[in-house]
Amino acid sequence: MTKSTIKGCASIADGGSIRAFNGAVLKLSKVTITRSYSHGNGGAVAVVGAKATVYESFFMDCTAAGSGGAVWVSPSQQSYPRPPLDAFFHLSQCTLQNNSAADSGGALAISESKGAVERSIFTGNVAKSGGAIAVTKQSSALVQDSRLYTNKALGLGGGAISVSASALELFSNSIAGNEAAKGGGGALLWDGDTAPIVRMDCGLGLFADPVNALGRSYCVPCAPGFFKESLTSAQCTACGAGTYSNVTASSPGALPVPATLDTMEMWSRGALIACRAHRDSSKKASHRRNARHAVGAHTVT
Fold first, then answer.
1. What is the pLDDT of residue 99?
2. What are residue 265's phi and psi, to 5 degrees?
3. Nearest Cα to 207, choosing from 268, 277, 116, 148?
4. Domains defined for the chain, CATH in brackets
5. pLDDT in tens, 30-42
6. In which region does residue 293 sit, left (phi positive, over 0), alpha (psi from -120 to 50) or beta (all else)?
7. pLDDT at res. 235
8. How far apart, in Å, are the Cα atoms of 79 and each of 76, 82, 85?
9. Does 81 sit behind a cis peptide bond, omega within 30 degrees of 0 on the bond before it?
10. 31 neighbors 4 (Cβ within 8 angstroms)
11. Is the pLDDT of residue 264 over 50?
C-alpha cells in the first residue's frame, strides 16, 4: 500500500486498521493512519506471524486497549505440533505521534519478535509502560538514528522505552523530555538478564553497517582506500590520488560494552585515520582500484 490515508477505523480484534498474519508480507509506504482504534493490540497495525516494512509513514491519535498504540508485532500461534510463525518489523523514516496503549508500547510494541527502527520520530505517545516503545518476551530490536521526545509511561516506567527479558540495541538516538509518572526510568526501563547496548557513534576508522536480518548493527572498519576523519563523520572518506589507508574491512569489530566516547576512542587508536603516500606506482594503482570498488558502499544511513 502506498500514498494512502486511513482515518477513524476500529476493530474488536488486533489491528484497528490493518492486520497482517500467518506468513503475510506487508509493505506500507507514505501511508497516513489517524484515529484508529483496536479493542485488542495494535491500534493501527497488527503484525502477527508476518513480515512488515513501513517507510515514510505517519501514525497519529491511534489507540489500543492492549499493547502497541499504533503497531503491535507478535508471532502467530499454530495448532500443535506446528511451531509458531515468527514476526519481523522494520520501520524507517516514520513519525508516530500522540498514540496510546492501555498496557505497553504507546506507539510500538514488539513481543517475542524481531524489529528494527531507524530515522523515525516518536513524540507524545503514552502507555502504562514504554511510553513510545515496548520490547518484551525474548524479542530482539534495534533503534537507531531516531528521536524520542515527550513520551510518557503512566505505570511501571520507561517513559520512552521499556525492555523486558529481551535484547535491545540503541544506536545514535536522541532521547529527551520523556517521563515515567509513577515508575522508574524516565528514558529507559530495563528488566531482565540482557543489558541494552547503547552506542553513540562508531569509532575512528569505523562505520555503521546497515541493519541486517537480525535487526542488529555493527561497527566495522572503512574499506581499503577510505578513512573516517572524526567520531561524528557520517561516512568514510576516500583517500586522495597517490595515497592509501591501511585499515581493512576483513572482519567486523565489536565495540566495548558499555560503549562510551572514551572506550570508542581507545578501541580505535590502532586504526589509521589518515592517508599515507604510496611508495611505488603499482601500489598506487592497486589501491585506486580498491577505492573505486568501495565507493558508495559504506555510509551511515
1. 98
2. -60, -45
3. 268
4. 2-199 (2.160.20), 206-294 (no CATH)
5. 999 999 999 999 9
6. alpha
7. 65
8. 10, 6, 11
9. yes
10. yes
11. no
The residue among 32 and 173 whose pLDDT is bigger is: 32
Which position has the grid cell 585515520? Answer: 273
Among 108, 111, 88, 293, which residue's Cα sits nearest to residue 211? 88
**C-alpha dihedral, 82 to 141 to 133 to 207, nearest 10°:** -160
**CA pair distance 84, 274, nearest whole angstrom:** 51
The pLDDT tens digits of the residues spanning 64-114 come to 999 999 999 999 877 677 778 899 999 999 999 999 999 999 999 999 999
C-alpha distances in angstroms, 110 versus 170, 173, 228, 269? 15, 19, 35, 38
The C-alpha atoms of residue 171 and residue 35 are separated, in whole angstroms, by: 31
Estimate to the nearest angstrom the gap between the alpha carbon of 190 and the chain centroid: 17
Cell for 140?
530482539
Cβ–Cβ under 8 Å, residues 66 and 77:
no
Q: Read off the pTM.
A: 0.71
Cα–Cα separations (whole angstroms), residue 288 to 223, 224, 242: 12, 9, 8
Sort strands 179-180 and 108-111 into parallel, antiparallel or unpaired: unpaired
Judge whether 38 and 66 are in contact, CB under 8 Å. Answer: yes
